Amino acid sequence: MALRMATRRLGSKLLPRFSSTSVLHSHATSFGFKEIPEEEKSRMVGNVFSNVASNYDLMNDLMSAGLHRLWKDRLVSKLNPFPGMKHLDVAGGTGDVAFRILETLNSVKSRATQDVLDDNLHEETQIFVCDINPKMLNVGQKRALERGLGEDKSLIWVEGDAEALNYKDNSMDGYTIAFGIRNVTHIEKVLAEAYRVLKRGGRFLCLELSHVEVPVFKELYDYYSFSIIPAVGEAVAGDRDSYRYLVESIRRFPSQETFASMIAAAGFQKVEYENLVGGVVAIHSGLKI
Amino acid sequence: MVRASLMLLKDAGRGFCKSLSQILVCPLSKQPLRYSEETNSLISDAIGVSFPIKDGIPCLVPMDGKIIEADDMPKADDAADLSSKNNQ
Fold it and tell me: By the 8 A CB rule, do B62 and B83 touch?
Protein backbone atom coordinates (compact mmCIF):
# COMPACT_ATOMS: atom_id res chain seq x y z
CA MET A 1 0.00 0.00 0.00
CA ALA A 2 1.54 3.29 -1.08
CA LEU A 3 2.13 5.82 1.63
CA ARG A 4 0.29 8.83 0.32
CA MET A 5 0.86 12.13 1.99
CA ALA A 6 -1.13 15.28 1.60
CA THR A 7 -0.18 18.38 3.50
CA ARG A 8 -2.66 21.15 4.15
CA ARG A 9 -1.63 24.43 5.53
CA LEU A 10 -4.03 26.67 7.35
CA GLY A 11 -3.81 30.44 7.29
CA SER A 12 -3.51 32.35 10.49
CA LYS A 13 -6.95 33.88 10.08
CA LEU A 14 -9.11 30.88 10.76
CA LEU A 15 -12.84 31.24 10.91
CA PRO A 16 -14.16 28.31 12.86
CA ARG A 17 -16.87 26.77 10.75
CA PHE A 18 -18.18 24.72 13.57
CA SER A 19 -19.76 25.34 16.90
CA SER A 20 -16.69 24.68 19.00
CA THR A 21 -18.63 24.21 22.22
CA SER A 22 -20.83 21.53 20.73
CA VAL A 23 -17.89 19.60 19.26
CA LEU A 24 -16.01 19.71 22.56
CA HIS A 25 -19.07 18.82 24.62
CA SER A 26 -19.84 15.94 22.31
CA HIS A 27 -16.29 14.63 22.68
CA ALA A 28 -16.34 14.94 26.46
CA THR A 29 -19.55 12.95 26.76
CA SER A 30 -18.82 10.21 24.28
CA PHE A 31 -17.22 6.86 24.88
CA GLY A 32 -17.00 5.56 21.34
CA PHE A 33 -20.57 5.64 20.11
CA LYS A 34 -22.02 5.62 23.62
CA GLU A 35 -23.21 8.71 25.44
CA ILE A 36 -21.84 8.89 28.96
CA PRO A 37 -21.71 11.38 31.82
CA GLU A 38 -18.66 13.59 31.41
CA GLU A 39 -17.24 12.71 34.81
CA GLU A 40 -17.26 9.02 33.88
CA LYS A 41 -15.15 9.26 30.75
CA SER A 42 -11.74 9.34 32.38
CA ARG A 43 -12.47 6.25 34.48
CA MET A 44 -13.93 4.29 31.57
CA VAL A 45 -10.99 5.10 29.32
CA GLY A 46 -8.69 4.20 32.21
CA ASN A 47 -10.29 0.77 32.38
CA VAL A 48 -9.77 0.24 28.65
CA PHE A 49 -6.06 0.96 28.91
CA SER A 50 -5.56 -1.07 32.05
CA ASN A 51 -7.14 -3.95 30.15
CA VAL A 52 -5.13 -3.52 26.97
CA ALA A 53 -1.76 -2.57 28.50
CA SER A 54 -0.15 -5.98 28.43
CA ASN A 55 -1.10 -6.63 24.80
CA TYR A 56 -0.93 -3.05 23.62
CA ASP A 57 2.15 -3.27 21.44
CA LEU A 58 1.30 -6.65 19.95
CA MET A 59 -2.17 -5.40 19.04
CA ASN A 60 -0.73 -2.26 17.45
CA ASP A 61 1.45 -4.42 15.24
CA LEU A 62 -1.44 -6.68 14.29
CA MET A 63 -4.01 -3.96 13.68
CA SER A 64 -1.74 -1.78 11.57
CA ALA A 65 0.34 -4.56 10.00
CA GLY A 66 3.34 -2.98 11.60
CA LEU A 67 2.68 0.38 9.96
CA HIS A 68 2.39 2.17 13.29
CA ARG A 69 6.17 1.88 13.55
CA LEU A 70 6.62 3.88 10.36
CA TRP A 71 4.09 6.45 11.50
CA LYS A 72 5.98 6.97 14.75
CA ASP A 73 9.27 7.18 12.85
CA ARG A 74 7.71 9.93 10.76
CA LEU A 75 6.51 11.75 13.87
CA VAL A 76 9.95 11.74 15.44
CA SER A 77 11.66 12.83 12.23
CA LYS A 78 9.33 15.84 12.10
CA LEU A 79 10.33 16.66 15.65
CA ASN A 80 14.04 17.05 14.77
CA PRO A 81 15.34 16.08 18.22
CA PHE A 82 18.51 17.77 19.42
CA PRO A 83 20.91 16.97 22.28
CA GLY A 84 20.08 18.76 25.49
CA MET A 85 16.42 19.12 24.58
CA LYS A 86 13.62 18.90 27.11
CA HIS A 87 10.83 16.90 25.59
CA LEU A 88 7.43 15.85 26.83
CA ASP A 89 5.72 12.81 25.37
CA VAL A 90 2.15 12.77 26.63
CA ALA A 91 0.06 9.61 26.76
CA GLY A 92 3.41 8.03 25.99
CA GLY A 93 2.66 4.94 28.07
CA THR A 94 4.62 2.12 26.55
CA GLY A 95 7.43 4.36 25.37
CA ASP A 96 7.46 3.98 21.59
CA VAL A 97 7.93 7.66 20.79
CA ALA A 98 10.33 8.35 23.66
CA PHE A 99 12.58 5.43 22.72
CA ARG A 100 12.75 6.65 19.13
CA ILE A 101 13.73 10.14 20.23
CA LEU A 102 16.47 8.77 22.48
CA GLU A 103 17.77 6.43 19.84
CA THR A 104 17.87 9.27 17.30
CA LEU A 105 19.89 11.34 19.76
CA ASN A 106 22.20 8.47 20.63
CA SER A 107 22.94 7.82 16.98
CA VAL A 108 23.65 11.51 16.42
CA LYS A 109 26.03 11.36 19.36
CA SER A 110 27.98 8.41 18.05
CA ARG A 111 28.46 10.09 14.68
CA ALA A 112 29.68 13.36 16.17
CA THR A 113 33.30 13.92 17.10
CA GLN A 114 34.18 13.38 20.72
CA ASP A 115 33.64 16.69 22.39
CA VAL A 116 33.28 17.48 26.04
CA LEU A 117 30.64 20.11 25.30
CA ASP A 118 28.55 17.61 23.35
CA ASP A 119 28.72 15.09 26.18
CA ASN A 120 27.51 17.69 28.64
CA LEU A 121 24.66 18.61 26.34
CA HIS A 122 23.61 14.99 25.99
CA GLU A 123 23.54 14.71 29.75
CA GLU A 124 21.05 17.54 29.87
CA THR A 125 18.62 15.82 27.54
CA GLN A 126 15.41 15.03 29.35
CA ILE A 127 12.56 13.06 27.82
CA PHE A 128 9.50 12.92 30.04
CA VAL A 129 7.14 10.04 29.36
CA CYS A 130 3.85 11.13 30.84
CA ASP A 131 0.82 8.88 31.09
CA ILE A 132 -2.24 8.86 33.31
CA ASN A 133 -2.24 5.07 33.47
CA PRO A 134 0.41 3.43 35.67
CA LYS A 135 0.00 0.03 33.99
CA MET A 136 1.00 1.49 30.65
CA LEU A 137 4.02 3.16 32.26
CA ASN A 138 5.09 -0.10 33.87
CA VAL A 139 4.96 -1.82 30.49
CA GLY A 140 7.04 1.05 29.14
CA GLN A 141 9.67 0.66 31.83
CA LYS A 142 10.01 -3.06 31.09
CA ARG A 143 10.36 -2.36 27.38
CA ALA A 144 13.01 0.24 28.09
CA LEU A 145 15.03 -2.41 29.88
CA GLU A 146 14.62 -4.83 26.99
CA ARG A 147 15.78 -2.15 24.60
CA GLY A 148 18.86 -1.40 26.65
CA LEU A 149 17.56 2.00 27.73
CA GLY A 150 16.87 1.06 31.34
CA GLU A 151 19.87 2.93 32.69
CA ASP A 152 19.45 5.99 30.50
CA LYS A 153 18.98 8.91 32.83
CA SER A 154 17.40 11.01 30.07
CA LEU A 155 14.23 8.92 30.22
CA ILE A 156 11.93 10.04 32.99
CA TRP A 157 8.66 8.25 33.68
CA VAL A 158 5.91 10.32 35.28
CA GLU A 159 2.29 9.61 35.97
CA GLY A 160 0.41 12.71 34.94
CA ASP A 161 -2.79 14.09 33.50
CA ALA A 162 -2.66 15.66 30.03
CA GLU A 163 -5.44 18.06 31.11
CA ALA A 164 -3.50 19.24 34.19
CA LEU A 165 0.19 18.82 33.48
CA ASN A 166 2.84 18.83 36.16
CA TYR A 167 5.51 20.83 34.29
CA LYS A 168 6.56 24.45 34.55
CA ASP A 169 5.39 27.03 32.03
CA ASN A 170 7.72 27.41 29.07
CA SER A 171 9.85 24.43 30.01
CA MET A 172 9.64 22.11 26.98
CA ASP A 173 11.29 22.27 23.58
CA GLY A 174 8.94 19.68 22.17
CA TYR A 175 5.59 18.09 22.94
CA THR A 176 4.28 14.94 21.32
CA ILE A 177 1.07 13.04 21.82
CA ALA A 178 0.71 9.86 19.79
CA PHE A 179 -2.62 8.03 19.72
CA GLY A 180 -3.58 9.76 22.95
CA ILE A 181 -5.63 12.84 22.19
CA ARG A 182 -8.56 10.76 21.05
CA ASN A 183 -8.91 9.36 24.55
CA VAL A 184 -8.95 12.52 26.63
CA THR A 185 -12.15 14.01 28.02
CA HIS A 186 -11.41 17.69 27.32
CA ILE A 187 -9.39 18.24 24.16
CA GLU A 188 -9.23 22.00 24.68
CA LYS A 189 -7.62 21.58 28.12
CA VAL A 190 -4.97 19.27 26.70
CA LEU A 191 -4.17 21.78 23.97
CA ALA A 192 -4.06 24.66 26.46
CA GLU A 193 -1.70 22.73 28.72
CA ALA A 194 0.49 21.79 25.75
CA TYR A 195 0.72 25.46 24.88
CA ARG A 196 1.54 26.42 28.46
CA VAL A 197 4.45 24.02 28.95
CA LEU A 198 6.11 24.62 25.58
CA LYS A 199 8.87 27.20 25.31
CA ARG A 200 8.60 29.92 22.73
CA GLY A 201 9.75 28.29 19.53
CA GLY A 202 8.63 24.93 20.84
CA ARG A 203 6.77 22.44 18.67
CA PHE A 204 3.51 20.63 19.22
CA LEU A 205 3.11 17.36 17.34
CA CYS A 206 0.12 15.06 17.42
CA LEU A 207 -0.12 11.68 15.72
CA GLU A 208 -3.64 10.33 15.69
CA LEU A 209 -5.99 8.05 13.83
CA SER A 210 -8.09 10.25 11.65
CA HIS A 211 -10.72 10.37 8.92
CA VAL A 212 -10.62 8.69 5.55
CA GLU A 213 -12.69 10.25 2.80
CA VAL A 214 -11.21 8.50 -0.23
CA PRO A 215 -14.09 6.60 -1.90
CA VAL A 216 -13.95 2.80 -1.86
CA PHE A 217 -10.95 2.88 0.45
CA LYS A 218 -13.23 4.42 3.06
CA GLU A 219 -15.65 1.50 2.82
CA LEU A 220 -12.87 -1.05 3.05
CA TYR A 221 -11.40 0.76 6.03
CA ASP A 222 -14.79 0.86 7.78
CA TYR A 223 -15.27 -2.85 7.23
CA TYR A 224 -11.79 -3.52 8.55
CA SER A 225 -12.36 -1.34 11.61
CA PHE A 226 -15.76 -2.58 12.67
CA SER A 227 -15.58 -6.23 11.68
CA ILE A 228 -11.94 -7.30 11.79
CA ILE A 229 -10.39 -5.33 14.61
CA PRO A 230 -12.77 -6.21 17.44
CA ALA A 231 -12.53 -9.87 16.36
CA VAL A 232 -8.73 -9.74 16.53
CA GLY A 233 -9.03 -8.06 19.91
CA GLU A 234 -11.22 -10.92 21.05
CA ALA A 235 -8.88 -13.59 19.70
CA VAL A 236 -5.58 -12.08 20.88
CA ALA A 237 -6.46 -10.13 23.98
CA GLY A 238 -9.78 -11.69 24.94
CA ASP A 239 -11.29 -8.23 24.89
CA ARG A 240 -13.66 -7.31 22.08
CA ASP A 241 -15.20 -4.31 23.88
CA SER A 242 -12.00 -2.39 24.41
CA TYR A 243 -11.13 -2.65 20.75
CA ARG A 244 -14.61 -1.67 19.68
CA TYR A 245 -14.21 1.41 21.88
CA LEU A 246 -10.91 2.19 20.17
CA VAL A 247 -12.46 1.92 16.70
CA GLU A 248 -15.57 3.93 17.60
CA SER A 249 -13.54 6.65 19.28
CA ILE A 250 -11.69 7.23 16.01
CA ARG A 251 -14.98 7.94 14.21
CA ARG A 252 -16.15 10.30 16.96
CA PHE A 253 -12.95 12.33 16.95
CA PRO A 254 -13.08 15.67 15.07
CA SER A 255 -11.95 15.77 11.45
CA GLN A 256 -8.47 16.85 10.43
CA GLU A 257 -9.65 20.36 9.64
CA THR A 258 -11.69 20.78 12.80
CA PHE A 259 -8.89 19.50 14.99
CA ALA A 260 -6.45 21.85 13.26
CA SER A 261 -8.78 24.76 14.08
CA MET A 262 -8.78 23.72 17.71
CA ILE A 263 -4.99 23.68 17.79
CA ALA A 264 -4.92 27.17 16.32
CA ALA A 265 -7.55 28.30 18.82
CA ALA A 266 -5.20 27.24 21.61
CA GLY A 267 -2.70 29.80 20.37
CA PHE A 268 -0.46 27.77 18.12
CA GLN A 269 0.84 29.24 14.88
CA LYS A 270 1.77 27.58 11.60
CA VAL A 271 -0.77 24.85 12.20
CA GLU A 272 -0.48 22.12 9.58
CA TYR A 273 -1.44 18.51 9.15
CA GLU A 274 -0.18 15.65 7.06
CA ASN A 275 -2.32 12.65 6.13
CA LEU A 276 -0.71 9.26 6.01
CA VAL A 277 -2.32 6.28 4.26
CA GLY A 278 -5.16 8.34 2.87
CA GLY A 279 -6.08 9.79 6.26
CA VAL A 280 -5.99 6.63 8.35
CA VAL A 281 -3.57 8.64 10.47
CA ALA A 282 -2.75 12.32 10.51
CA ILE A 283 0.14 14.23 12.04
CA HIS A 284 -0.89 17.68 13.19
CA SER A 285 1.76 20.21 14.12
CA GLY A 286 1.90 23.71 15.52
CA LEU A 287 4.42 26.18 16.76
CA LYS A 288 4.39 28.31 19.91
CA ILE A 289 5.75 31.66 18.90
CA MET B 1 13.55 30.38 46.88
CA VAL B 2 13.59 26.95 48.45
CA ARG B 3 17.14 26.18 47.34
CA ALA B 4 17.94 24.04 50.37
CA SER B 5 15.07 21.70 49.66
CA LEU B 6 16.37 21.06 46.15
CA MET B 7 19.33 19.31 47.72
CA LEU B 8 16.93 16.91 49.40
CA LEU B 9 15.83 15.33 46.13
CA LYS B 10 17.74 12.13 45.85
CA ASP B 11 18.19 9.33 43.42
CA ALA B 12 15.24 7.03 44.19
CA GLY B 13 16.75 4.13 42.33
CA ARG B 14 15.43 4.98 38.89
CA GLY B 15 17.15 8.23 37.98
CA PHE B 16 14.97 10.54 40.01
CA CYS B 17 17.36 13.42 40.58
CA LYS B 18 17.34 17.02 41.74
CA SER B 19 17.40 18.58 38.28
CA LEU B 20 13.81 17.34 37.95
CA SER B 21 12.72 19.80 40.61
CA GLN B 22 13.42 22.55 38.12
CA ILE B 23 10.81 21.27 35.71
CA LEU B 24 8.31 19.24 37.72
CA VAL B 25 5.59 21.25 39.44
CA CYS B 26 2.35 20.58 41.26
CA PRO B 27 -0.35 19.82 38.63
CA LEU B 28 -2.92 21.83 40.59
CA SER B 29 -1.06 24.96 41.66
CA LYS B 30 1.80 24.80 39.09
CA GLN B 31 4.11 25.70 41.97
CA PRO B 32 7.41 23.91 42.77
CA LEU B 33 7.47 20.58 44.57
CA ARG B 34 9.59 19.48 47.51
CA TYR B 35 10.83 15.93 47.92
CA SER B 36 10.10 14.37 51.29
CA GLU B 37 12.41 11.48 52.02
CA GLU B 38 10.50 10.16 55.02
CA THR B 39 7.24 9.75 53.11
CA ASN B 40 8.89 9.24 49.69
CA SER B 41 6.55 11.78 48.20
CA LEU B 42 6.53 15.16 46.52
CA ILE B 43 5.00 17.95 48.54
CA SER B 44 3.25 20.95 47.09
CA ASP B 45 3.68 23.50 49.87
CA ALA B 46 1.58 26.06 48.01
CA ILE B 47 -1.59 24.06 48.62
CA GLY B 48 -0.50 21.53 51.26
CA VAL B 49 -0.89 18.43 49.11
CA SER B 50 1.43 15.47 48.80
CA PHE B 51 1.87 13.21 45.78
CA PRO B 52 3.21 9.69 46.13
CA ILE B 53 6.12 8.11 44.32
CA LYS B 54 5.51 4.50 43.35
CA ASP B 55 8.27 2.30 41.94
CA GLY B 56 10.30 5.42 41.30
CA ILE B 57 7.48 6.97 39.27
CA PRO B 58 6.15 10.29 40.61
CA CYS B 59 2.34 10.13 40.60
CA LEU B 60 1.42 13.69 39.72
CA VAL B 61 -2.14 13.22 38.59
CA PRO B 62 -4.42 15.65 40.50
CA MET B 63 -6.48 12.74 41.85
CA ASP B 64 -3.35 11.19 43.40
CA GLY B 65 -2.83 14.18 45.68
CA LYS B 66 -3.53 13.89 49.38
CA ILE B 67 -4.18 16.88 51.59
CA ILE B 68 -1.61 17.04 54.36
CA GLU B 69 -3.40 17.38 57.64
CA ALA B 70 -1.74 16.71 60.95
CA ASP B 71 -4.76 14.90 62.42
CA ASP B 72 -7.07 13.92 59.53
CA MET B 73 -6.69 10.84 57.37
CA PRO B 74 -5.70 12.03 53.91
CA LYS B 75 -8.60 11.87 51.47
CA ALA B 76 -8.28 11.64 47.69
CA ASP B 77 -11.75 13.29 47.37
CA ASP B 78 -10.39 16.54 48.75
CA ALA B 79 -7.75 16.64 46.06
CA ALA B 80 -10.46 15.98 43.46
CA ASP B 81 -12.50 18.91 44.83
CA LEU B 82 -9.39 21.07 44.67
CA SER B 83 -8.80 19.90 41.14
CA SER B 84 -12.34 20.80 40.02
CA LYS B 85 -12.06 24.21 41.70
CA ASN B 86 -8.82 24.89 39.87
CA ASN B 87 -10.29 23.76 36.57
CA GLN B 88 -13.09 26.32 36.70
Answer: yes
Q: Which amino acid is located at A88 in the chain? A: L
**Structural domain count, chain B:** 1
- Report residue A10: phi and psi, to 5°: -110, 135
d(CA A261, CA B76): 36
Decide if A258 contacts A188 (C-beta within 8 A): no
Q: Provide, for chain A, the percentages of residues in helix, strand and coil under a 3-state DSSP scheme, each rounded to the nearest 5.
A: 50, 20, 25
Query: Touching check for B57 and chain A: CB below 8 Å?
Result: yes
* CATH assignment at residue B64: 2.20.25.10
The pLDDT-based confidence of A19 (bands split at 50, 70, 90) is low
Identify whether the C-beta of residue B47 lies closer than 8 Å to the C-beta of residue B29. Answer: yes
Judged by a CB distance cut-off of 8 A, whether residue B61 touches chain A is yes
Which residues lie across from B36 on neighbouring strands? B41
Please give the ipTM for the structure prediction: 0.84
Interface test with B, best of A45, A151, A166 (most B CBs within 10 A): A166
Which structural domain range is residue B6 located in?
2-87
The pTM (predicted TM-score) of the whole model is 0.85
Is A207:A285 a contact under the CB 8 Å cutoff?
A: no
- C-beta of residue A155 within 8 angstroms of C-beta of residue A127: yes
Please report the pLDDT score of residue B82 as a whole number. 56
CA gyration radius, chain B:
13
The three-state secondary structure class of A87 is strand
Phi, psi of A269 (to 5 degrees): -110, 170
